[in-house]
Amino acid sequence: MSHTAHIPSHRKPRRSGSKLALRAGVAGGVLSTLAVAGAAGPATAAEPVTETIELPTLTADLAIQVAQSASATQLAAVSYEVQAEQDAATAKAAKQAKKDLADAERKAEAKKKAKAEAERKAAQERASRTASRTTLSASAAPSASTGSQVSVPSSGSVSAVISFLKAQLGDAYVMGGTGPNSWDCSGLVQAAFQQAGVSLPRTSQQQSTAGTQVGTSNLQVGDILYWGGAGSAYHTGVYIGNGQYLDAANPGKGVVIQNLSGYPASGAIRVL
Q: Which CATH number is associated with domain 141-270?
């Protein structure tokens, strides 16, 4: 036995020829495949790659739905706008109504104060007239025909008539007025003679024939004067002496004393 037999050998084991041949064949096939792929590669790379993406097609129903949705959106926007305008108009109207109410209240208050003041003045005037009625005029008055001094009749009836008439001086003339603060001509004459217990007709025409016709040449205090024809007179007054008469003249003058010389009467009647 060799002295080196126990030392392991460092040689690589030999490969069999069949295994080498197999490996060579596999390698050759791989290389052939790579060569074919390399030859075909440039031709393939030269061709562009394209791809078509198809979008979904809108159907008629879907188009209708889209249109309806857009219409609904537009209607909603219009509705909101109209509502906003209505709210603004309502607020403006409420503000104006509040202002108008305040103005009306101020005017009503001013009118109330004016009415109260007018009533106060009227009360003062009535009180003054009442005091005047208690004072009967007994002073002498000249005759209209002779100019001599005549006394107011002492019977009291004529005095009551004259006193009442003078207490109404300054009152307003109102067509159809029968007092206590406004009169027409025949209304004042009728009310004056009621103080003496004499009931006269209401109108000037009727009053011009209600007593004894005395003409205008021999007048006495308390005679009723009329203008126009007897039975068709258009105005009446009462003679108070000194060539004067008292009447509810017209809207411009009211109840006043006037001179016969400026407006001569047509006739006169006597009831007292």
A: 3.90.1720.10
